[in-house]
Design goal:
The chain is an alpha+beta fold. The protein has 26 helices and 23 strands.
Length: 895
């Protein structure tokens, strides 16, 4: 026989002490007569196991954790002994009773269900995004062996990602750490037969799909003979394009299509689930058609860094093992080609890390924030359930006197929380399905892998676990605390009063946690909202409102001589300017706020020629007259581009203030000349700086060349039209398209976007973070206020007799108000103090996401405290006002 007194070790460690205390807590499920012997048996088993480990090889942390896990099993043992084999039948019976009970209290039920729905729905939606972006594997063979080759200046790894195609070819032949190296560059073709359609596309090396590890859904992928000079023009198309335009015709591979007025043979079709590695996108759209280079790598410009590189690691090689070999190869290329490579190197990054970038940290921060919202929601439900269970103590007393075991009482109470969790979970999943698309749309181009985002089976399993865990943690524990008390007593009895007092202290502690958590979210939201406002206040150097952009494909210009091409552009722009509401129209190759990097070398002719690796570049743009006026770019000095700056005129250009300061600091740049694209251009004028990449990126040097004089991206190709006028211009896409097609029906038009939409695309990340955190903070604030009001109402109910006596003895109603209000102010203030300390620590996580504001901005902290305190006091005042209206006679009679 075991001793009825639980053994106690002389010097137990904290893990053993925790295990013994847990067994003691679990024993509360048992009848009092059986507790001591049961507890003694479990404690003896725990201590014996600990002694065996100590006598052997010692006790490590893992062994201690196993002891704790074993002790947790005592809860199952106690549950089984108490319920005598509690099964699903009893659970279903209790769930039925719980459903009827919850229907009788619609206000309580709706509050609890909606609270959980919001918490679980927000978590499920965000987990769907996190899983799609960060966790879902790429649909390639062994995707973890894929890396991106990031080209940059030595010592400046964050400045660029582009590489030159000849360098990629040399890396593939010289570096044994790779089993394959491929390149990808932007290409935007158009169907020039049937309905004109501009396509997002890419030029790739012939082994691109082989390096990724992808197999075709139809036909085949490229072969070596289909790359280089003299190759047969061949394309691979996406499964979506194959289905949409060709009706998934199985005979399409091997036939020809007309792209850019040229016949291309369709080699094959990518799989339906193919996902490009996000190295090249068009306003967030993945390429739908791929071709191979029409040149040989050895003949291409080694200084033309317009390619992205991706490689597959050889077997047994990791990133750290391959990196030195790549740097050594780049050092050899720098010696062989100093002018192009003297200051260049390549860094390797796992493809997933390269694609995700800083989105990973932002999503984890948002996941933590939405987790806090769920915590506040669960605390609120726990408060509601605790109050509900206190109201039912008389019912529990009757059930107990009729022979119901404490385990049966606990399961009966737990069934209500489980029913609430089930309904809240189902509604939360439905909410997540409806909000994931909205969140992705709100993110714009900032969110990579958007096509991989969905609420799938894994996310649903997480939601089910979340609902079940919520029911257990915040439903079972209050049930154990109330139904497990000994003896069960009416609330009015001394023991019942003690239990009710303990329950109220628990509820106050939970509300303190709610207030503190809410303040952290409110301050975080305030910081991101202020940051987002600061971004919108940045001077971009261009007009944001009343500007529309349209991209015209160049196939309709390629057969024209320069003079005829210039005449066509002039006719297009003049006809557009004649439309009502239009003030000015122009055209340029790359409009501001579009994600396009094209830093080209600039060599001032009045300076000594730069040495190897010392050259500097500028963002070079090709523009027609009216383009800078349409952008509303402010002319600082000189003149703009005019139609007289044609192909036969002397080379001229307009530059930005940043470029003037870079190449001719402290001097007037007007009349100075520089070599760009092997041609000479003299400065005609200087415009204010333009933030081409958005408000977060400082303005860099820019040069605007006349489209008639620009040999690469000028008048012989399609340009983007920029139109400025009244606000109605932003919605005139169809009218402008009709004007252009009336001049030349073959012109394919794409990317019709107001300048405001382009701006929104550059701040998608800040907008998403600020909006979501503001929503999370608002939810937490509402839930915390409900919690404060509930606790204060419960306090008024418990002190009803006391307040009635005070009023009967002559106390003014205002005294009752101050009595309750003082309690609410104290509760809110303590919660704010704790939350302020937490906010000071946690808001530092937002340091990389704020713009123009400190993570410890005093104004934001003060505003957050004031908001939460004011609303908290208001929620305390409402129960306080009800306390002042208590009828003393009614209060004493009810007691």
């Amino acid at each position: 026989m075991l001793s009825p007194t639980p053994p106690t070790p002389e010097t137990p460690d904290r893990f053993v002490r925790f295990s013994i205390r847990f067994v003691g807590a679990a024993s509360r499920l048992l009848p009092s007569a059986d507790r001591r012997a049961w507890r003694a048996e479990w404690n003896a088993e725990i201590l014996a196991a600990h002694d065996r480990l100590a006598r052997g090889r010692g006790v490590g942390t893992l062994d201690r954790l196993r002891l704790v896990v074993h002790a947790v099993g005592s809860l199952r043992d106690a549950w089984y002994l108490t319920t005598h084999g509690f099964g699903l039948r009893n659970l279903f019976q209790d769930l039925g009773r719980a459903g009827r009970s919850l229907r009788s209290r619609p206000g309580f039920t709706a509050t609890a269900v909606v609270t959980l729905m919001l918490g679980i729905g927000a978590n499920t939606a965000l987990l769907g995004i996190v899983r799609g972006v960060l966790l879902r594997p790429f649909p390639y063979d062994e995707p973890d062996r894929l890396v991106q080759l990031i080209g940059h200046r030595i010592g400046e790894p964050g400045r660029s990602t582009n590489v030159s195609y000849p360098n990629l070819a040399d890396i593939e032949s010289e570096v044994s750490a790779f089993s394959g190296v491929a390149g990808i560059s932007a290409w935007q073709p158009a169907f020039t037969e049937g309905a004109p359609e501009v396509l997002p596309g890419a030029t790739v090396s012939w082994d691109y799909f082989d390096v990724l590890g992808v197999r075709p859904a139809a036909g085949r992928f490229f072969v070596p003979d289909e790359e280089g000079e003299g190759r047969t023009p061949t394309v691979v198309i996406s499964h979506g394009l194959w289905t949409r335009r060709f009706g998934a015709d199985p005979d399409l591979p091997g036939s020809s299509v007309l792209l850019n007025n040229e016949a291309y043979v369709v080699a094959g079709v990518t799989p339906a689930d193919f996902e490009g590695p996000n190295l090249v996108t068009y306003n967030g759209r993945q390429p739908e058609v791929w071709r191979t280079p029409y040149f040989d790598a050895v003949d291409w410009f080694r200084s033309g860094r317009s390619w992205r590189g991706v490689a597959r690691l050889a077997d047994g090689v990791d990133v750290d093992g391959a990196q030195p070999e790549v740097r050594a190869a780049m050092a050899r290329l720098a010696d062989a080609y100093p002018e192009e490579n003297a200051d260049r190197t390549m860094t390797l990054a796992p493809l997933r890390d390269s694609v995700v970038g800083d989105t990973r940290t932002a999503l984890y921060v948002l996941m933590g924030a939405v987790g806090l919202v769920l915590l506040v929601a669960c605390v609120n439900v726990a408060n509601l359930l605790t109050g509900r269970m206190l109201e039912r103590r008389e019912e529990l007393l009757v059930r107990s006197s009729m022979g119901a075991s404490r385990g049966r009482l606990v399961t009966h109470l737990f069934a209500e929380s489980l029913a609430i969790a089930l309904v809240g979970g189902v509604l939360g999943v439905a909410l997540a399905y409806g909000t994931v698309g909205a969140i992705v749309g709100l993110a714009g181009q900032w969110l990579p892998r958007a096509d991989a985002i969905e609420v799938d089976a894994a996310v649903l399993a997480f939601s089910a676990a979340l609902a079940g865990g919520t029911a257990i943690l915040f439903g079972l524990l209050p049930a154990l605390r109330i139904a497990g008390s000994t003896p069960l007593s009416p609330v009015g009895g001394s023991r019942g009063g003690e239990i009710a007092g303990r329950a109220e202290r628990l509820r106050r502690g939970l509300v303190l946690a709610q207030v503190a958590t809410t303040l952290v979210l409110v301050v975080g939201a305030g910081l991101l909202l202020q940051s987002f406002a600061n971004l919108h206040g940045v001077d971009l150097g261009v007009q944001r409102r009343g500007v529309l952009t349209l991209e015209m494909h160049g196939a309709a210009w390629w057969d024209l001589e320069p003079e005829a091409a210039e005449d066509r552009y002039r006719e297009v722009l003049e006809r557009i300017e004649a439309l009502p509401g239009v003030m000015v129209a122009g055209a340029m190759d790359v409009v501001p706020l579009s994600d396009n990097y094209s830093c080209d070398g600039v060599t001032p002719l009045d300076r000594p020629p730069p040495g190897p690796g010392e050259g500097r570049c500028a963002e070079v743009r090709s523009v027609t007259p009216g383009a800078l006026d349409a952008l509303d770019a402010r002319l600082v000095t000189g003149r703009g581009i005019e139609w007289r700056d044609g192909a036969d005129a002397a080379g001229g250009m307009v530059i930005s203030a940043a470029m003037a300061e870079m190449f001719w600091p402290g001097e007037s740049a007007i009349g100075k000349s520089a070599l760009i694209h092997s041609d000479t251009f003299a400065v005609l004028g200087v415009v204010a700086d333009i933030r081409h990449f958005g408000p977060e990126t400082p303005p860099g040097p820019m040069a605007f060349l006349p489209a008639s004089q620009e040999p690469w991206n000028g008048i012989a190709r399609g340009l983007s039209v920029v139109v400025r006028g009244d606000a109605v211009v932003e919605s005139m896409g169809d009218e402008i398209r009709a004007v252009i097609n009336s001049i030349e029906p073959r012109i394919a038009i794409s990317s019709i976007s107001p300048m405001g939409d382009l701006l929104a695309g550059t701040v998608g990340g800040p907008r998403l973070r600020a909006t979501l955190l503001a929503i999370f903070a608002a939810l937490a604030l509402v839930l915390a206020l409900v919690g404060i009001a509930g606790v204060m109402a419960q306090a008024v109910s418990r002190r009803r007799r006391e307040i009635g006596v005070r009023i009967a003895l002559g106390a003014a109603p205002g005294g009752a108000i101050s009595l309750v209000l003082r309690d609410g102010v104290r509760l809110t203030s303590v919660g704010l103090a704790v939350g302020l300390l937490a906010a000071a620590a946690l808001t530092r996580l937002l340091e990389s996401f704020v713009f123009g504001v400190s993570p410890l901005e005093p104004r934001v902290l003060a505003a957050g405290c004031l908001l939460v305190f004011t609303l908290g006091v208001l929620c305390s005042w409402l129960p306080a006002r009800r306390a002042a209206r208590i009828d003393p006679v009614e209060a004493l009679r009810a007691d």
